[in-house]
Structures are given as C-alpha cells and as structure tokens.
Amino acid sequence: MGRGARKQLAELLGDAQRCGDFSTRIEMSARALRIEVDGVGELPLPLRAPVTKKLIAQARQASFGRGEQTLSDTRVRDTWEITPDRITLGGTDWDRTLDGVLDGVRTALGLPPTVVLRAELHALLVYGKGQFFLPHQDSEKDDSMMGTLVVSLPSHHTGGELVVSHAGRSVVHQTSREKLTFAAFYADCLHEVKPVKSGYRVTLTMNLLAERIRPAGEDDGGPVADLAHCLTEHFTEPAEERYAYGRQKAAPPNRLVCLLDHEYTQRGLDWDRLKGADATRTALLCQAAAETDCEAVLALAEVKETWDAHAPYDRYDYYGEVEHYDDCEDEECEGECLLDPDGEPGAERRRSGDFSDYELNELIDDEITLSWWTRPDGTGGEQINLPVAYAEVCATTENKDLTPYQSEYEGYMGNYGNTLDRWYRRAAVVLWPRQRSFTARAEAGSEGALRELQGHLDAGDFDRARTLARSLAPFWKHHGSGEAAAALFAAALPVAVGLREADTATMLLAPFGVETVGERHAPGLAAAAARYGRTWARGAVSSWFGTVGAYTGAGRAAWLESLPGLCTALRAADGDGDAMASPLAEGAWQAVEQQLTSWLGIGRETERRTGMEGLGVSLARVLQAAGPETAGTIAATLRGLPDTALECLLPALRTAARQPTTIRDGAPAARAFQTLADHCEDRLAAALTRPVRAADDWSLTPAGTCRTGCGLCPDLDAFLTSRTRHVMEWPLAKDGRRHLHSRIDQAGLPVSHHPAPGTPLRSGPDQDGRRLHPRTGDPHPRRDRPGVAAGQMAPGVRLRGDTSVSLPDSDDEKSEGWGQCHCLNG
Predict the structure, then answer these.
(1) Whole-Å CA distances, 183 to 26, 46, 149, 194, 497
(2) 3-state class of 294 per DSSP?
(3) What is residue 124's predicted lDDT score, i.e. its pLDDT?
C-alpha cells in the first residue's frame, strides 16, 4: 500500500496548488516614475538615444557571480551598470504605484496573503546593440530575498527579450515603448536577456524581499482531511520496497519527505518565505500534521539520478559525436578526435556540460540525502546527513521536469546503456509522528536528539535517558570525522559520561573518526576515562582509528599536527586524561609505522623520498605527543630500520628543531629525538667510510623473489648480482615481459629494458606501424602504451645508468622475443 498513500498525497497537493506562476508581467504608466542619475540628471521617459549614451558614459561594465567569485566576462554578460547609490527614484505616484505592483506580483506568483513584498533597488542596466546576458540564476543577496523585479524603462529598441524558465516551461517578457514594464520571477528561475538588435534596452533591477507582517488566517482551505488520512496510512502501513521480488514488506516508514518545486539557500529556507505553490502545499501539510500529531521541519535535499539516455538524433553520426579523448597521444589532433585511442567508434568519455536536450529512457538509480533541516520549533537549523529511502519520498513534480545544477554523461557503461547523471538541489517538508520524534532526529545525526538525552540526564531521569540511548544502536553508525563531525561528538561526549553505562557510552562514541577529537574535547574525554576505566578508554580510542590499513588521507596528517596539543590538554585535565592520551599516541604511531613500512618498500627513489619527507613531519608530532614508554618503543623501532629510513628521520629532526620550545629538556620526546639524532649521525658517518665500488663491478642489489613464485625473478637476481655480466638477451612471452617490467620499476633498479638490436618491428596498417583513424585515415595513437605506436617496440626506459635489460615487445600473448642487456657504466 505504501506507494498508494504517497501517490494520493502528491496528487492532492498538486490539485491544491494556489493559482500562481513562477513569473509575471505588469505594465504601468511611465508618468508615475521620476528618476535621476548622478552625472546625467532627470531621465525623460521614453528614453532616447542621446540620453542613453550619457548613461553609458557614467556606467561601468557589469560583472556576475559564479560560486564565491565575482567575474567580468563579456562572453557571459555584456551590459553597462550604474550602482544604486547614484540613482534616485521618486514621483508623486511612485510609492503607490510600486505598492500596487507588488500586491499584484504577490498574487500572480501565488504567495500567501500573509506575505508583504518589498522592492530594493539593485542596479540600473543599459543594453546596447548586440549586448546580452546568458542564462543564469540570481543569487539571494539577503535572507529575505525570494525573487527579482525588473523594471524596463520605455524606449525604442528591438530584441533584448527577457526569457524566464522553470520546471520545463519558459516565459518571454517583451517591453513597452511607452509604459513601464514590471517583470517579476523567483530567484531560483533560470533567465536570460537575448541580444539587443537595435536601440537601447534600459532597466532597473530590484531584489524582491518577503516580510510577514499581516496576521495569518485560521485556515487556508484545501483537502486537509484527505491529507491527514494519507499521513496516517503512510505511517501505519508497511513500507514498500522498490524492488521487492517477493520479499516481506518492511516496517512502516519513520518519516515522509515531500519534495518542493523551488530551490532555496540554507539561509533563505523559512516557513514565511516559501515560493508560489510551495507555500500553499506546506501550509496544507502543516495543518494535516497538526491533525495527525506529527512534527514537520523544512529541509534541504541533494538529489542524484542516473538515467539511461542518449544524445538527440541530430547529434549522432556513425561513430558517435563526442569530445576529444583526454588520453589522446596525437599532438596534431588539437581536440578534434572523435574516437577512442584504439580507433573504435562510439566509445564516449565522461564529460560535463548542458545535456538538457538528451533523451531520458529509463531511470537506473537515484539517491536523495538530506543535508540540513530546521528545528521543529522553527528556531534555527542544523547540519545533518540522512539518506532517504524510496518508501519515504513524495513529490508533486518529478526531478526530471526540473533543471539540474550539474550533469555528466558517461557514455556506454557495460550492462547499462549510455548513462547520464543529473544532480538537483531541492527543498522538502519532512514529517514524522511525534512519538517517533527522537528516533527520526537521531537517525539523521541530529544534535537535537543528543540535547534531548542530556535534558533527561539533567532532570535526573536516567532510566528514560538510557532507554532512548539504547534505541540508537541499530542506526547510530558512522558519523564521519574532522571538523564537520566535531560538534556532534562534543554533544555526544557529555551524554556518554552522564549515562554511567559503559556499553552504551561506547556505542555513542564509536562511530566517529579520530580526526574529530580535538583539544576542546579533552575535559570530557578525561572524565569519561575516569568513569569507565583505562580498558574502556583504550577500546574507545581503537574504534576511532578504524581498521588497520584504512585510507586516511590529508585529514589524518592535519590531525597529527594537533596531536601534541591534544595530549598535553588531556594530561592536564581533571580525571584520567593520560588514559586517553597514551592510546592516542600509540595508535598514531601504529598508523605512521604502517605508512613508513609501505614507503620503505617503494624502490622508486623520487616517489619514496617525497612520501618519506612528508611522513617525517607526522613522525615528529607523534614523538612530541608520546609518553616515556611509547617514545622509547618508537626510537628503538626506528633504529632497527634500513638506511633508507633516514629519508624520514632527518625531516623529523628538522621539524623538531624548528620548534625547540615544545620539547622540554628531560621530556620523553627530547630523549627520543636525541637518540634518533645520534643514530642518524652514526649511519651517515658509516656511509661516508664505505669504499668506492670497483670500476669493473656491475653488481646491484637483487630485486628479491616475488610472491607469485614465477621462476623468472631468480634469473633476474642472478644477473643483477653478477659482478661481470652487464648484457643479457632473454626470450620471454608477453606476460613474462610485463612481470619483469613491473619488478624492475617497483624496485627502482638502475636498469633499462629495451629490444635487442636487429629485432624486427611488427607490421602495422601504415608505414609507421600505427593504426589508422577509421574516419579520416590518419594515424591514431594507442591507449595501452603511451608514446609507443602500435607495432613498434618499446624504445627503452633508462632509469639510471648501471645496467640495461632488453625485453622485446610483442602483441602475441604466447610469442617469444629476444631482448638484450647492456652494461652502460661501471
């Protein structure tokens, strides 16, 4: 049944839409407005060319916003702009005229009568012949801004039409030669100004601000009883799975997410500033929620859909019309390559752009995640992370009927056809039964749920707090790490301490990553360790580090920078801070040691040295944070590593030397650093006393037996360790050559491998041995060996000049070829 209730609810909300649209146009007499511009004076209406040219002389090139940037590019926006501080609007009837226009706009846009609109002047714009503004959305410059009002001053011109689009529909606004033309639209609407063909188009742009000052009526009307029945049915019937395949239906949904049609910013999403039909539908939903004892919040949703799609017919040819392949090796291609590097037609690559004219065939997958919502009482909001299930979604307008803010076309994807990913930002009304309020909020990682637990603890109702806290266990999983999760961790920590129940406290704190833990959490951590003991503290810290070998990225390195300060704060805090500080330092060392071991196994010197230098900074921070026992263990372990470890130890010592005040004399870190400094000095001195290798000694360090036990690597090691051999010819099949290439590269051996002199090239389609472009007949590069044409032998890669091994190339999986080993320099 679940789908039936949501479908009926969407239909009811669609039928109850207030009579209104996303854009409207009103004309008024030009005599109502008196306008003066600094440097020009009063503007006679209708405007003539001589006056307009004076305006241009006082104007500047208009800019536009892109993300956080303000840009100026006449390929995007070509118009002249005069700022509002140089403009004076007046006239005996202007205020009354503008108020009447705003009332008409409110009604035409479908805003509730409780909303009062105010217009705030933004700029005067002048468009000359050929000038335009490409499709764009206006940024909401104020919390109360909900739209834009464009006042076109009467003038003789052609072109320059204002085109406003939303949800698949477009409205074209023309201007009058004798009257003022007011065009209003919501800020999330895509709009553009077409190029002016003749004359000048002059407009005033104003921000539409919404203020609620009129008292609301008791009832906005509508099918409230039917909506209430749908809500009751939705929250009592089993949830419907999208792909059930005979499985039993799940429990009733915990929430209902009703997607709205317009786009809002976080600061602009408010019950009193909803747009058009959104305002009507949310009012009806709130009334239905009140009748069914449900809570309602406003939320922001991130939506991704993956469609089976293809380009319009007129954009296809036999080979598939696609953009230049990123890995194309042909320097003369100049971005006109329409095929994949193997010359096969129709292999399209990932790209971003405008795919509004692509045909959508079938929805393959979709994801909806709530990222922010208001509190039930309407006071402020909070960041959340809540995936929304299929059985919880209701929408009057489908996503595909809206304009995505980003699209990416993948082309052919194996089991799927040509896939098109589309991303949307939508607002939503989220409802849940009041008795499920705690669970509904806690499942989203809401701080509000933790505040409720803290409230029960403060009131002395420990049984209620523990019961609610235990109910989190099924879904209180991963809440991320770093600064984004720090506030939630800070709210969970005092609750975990106050519950006085070790297992529940562990459950509350375990889902966070160690990068979340900072100095501000030190008092709470010390208190938790004192309450639950050192064994509990060690287990909690272990859960924050996660699984061994898990990818940590830049966030871990940044956290290690703060580790000494965190451990110092823990040891100074009341309670048992050292119970937390010690395992934190030990866990950090284990992670660094694992990375160090990994880097020591890299034979490529440049890559290894770069990684080891970066790791040296982290090693210094771990030593600064460590206690006596851990610092001694670290120093002993480091002294047992091979000489290549100096590439990490020396940067660590330099890092410590730059901050001498952080290492007190006699402290564990000071003793460990001195031990490592002595060790590095001994190793360097020993290296300087080693004899120079004889001129006729060609021996190298062996690559070592590989894990596969291939039988080839022992022969390679025998050649490498030989003092006299420096040339070897070796017949090998393709798989063997690939394996030895990999072994030589991974070990970073000073060995080059190339075909023996006289080894014939395999024949190719053209005289150069390259494949031909199927469309043009021109040579086309291969994908699998950059820089090597098909049919040619690898030219040889000189890594460093001691010995060279020649391994011939072949396209035959089972063929054998001859390579040659050359001694280059003793």
Answers:
(1) 7, 18, 6, 15, 59
(2) strand
(3) 95
**Which DSSP letter does residue 519 get?**
G
DSSP-assigned beta bridge partners for residue 297 = 430
β-strands 803-804, 751-752: how paired?
parallel
* Tokens encoding 128: 């000359």
Residue 133: pLDDT over 50: yes
Mean pLDDT value across the chain: 79
Backbone angles phi, psi at 193, to 5 degrees: -115, 120
Polymer length of the chain:
826
H helix or E strand, kind and range, residue 447: helix 447-458
Assess contact for 63 and 122: CB atoms under 8 A. no
Most confident of 334-338, 340-344, 603-607: 603-607
Given a cut of 50, whether residue 388 has pLDDT beyond it is yes
Measured on CA atoms in the order 315, 320, 326, 331, is the torsion positive or negative? negative
For residue 584, give the nearest of 637, 537, 648 by alpha carbon: 537
C-alpha to C-alpha distance for 612 and 596, rounded to whole angstroms? 7
If DSSP codes are grouped into helix, strand and coil, which group holds residue 231?
helix
Q: Where are the beta strands (DSSP E) in 109-217?
A: 115-127, 132-136, 145-152, 157-159, 162-166, 169-173, 179-186, 190-193, 196-199, 201-212
- Reported confidence tier of residue 339, pLDDT bands at 50, 70, 90: very low
Strand-strand pairing, 201-212 and 162-166? unpaired
CA distance to 290, 474, 788, per residue, from 12 (Å): 17, 35, 65
What are φ and ψ of residue 605, in 5° steps? -60, -45
End-to-end CA distance of the chain: 82
Give percent helix, percent strand, percent coil of the chain, each to the nearest 5.
35, 25, 40
Q: How far is CA 717 from CA 601, 629, 738, in A?
A: 17, 41, 17
Distances (CA, A) of 637 to 123, 624, 629, 643, 753: 68, 16, 12, 13, 37
Confidence of residue 693 (pLDDT cuts 50, 70, 90): confident
pLDDT at 351 over 60: no
- 725 pLDDT higher than 70: yes
Q: How far apart are CA 418 and CA 739, in angstroms?
A: 35
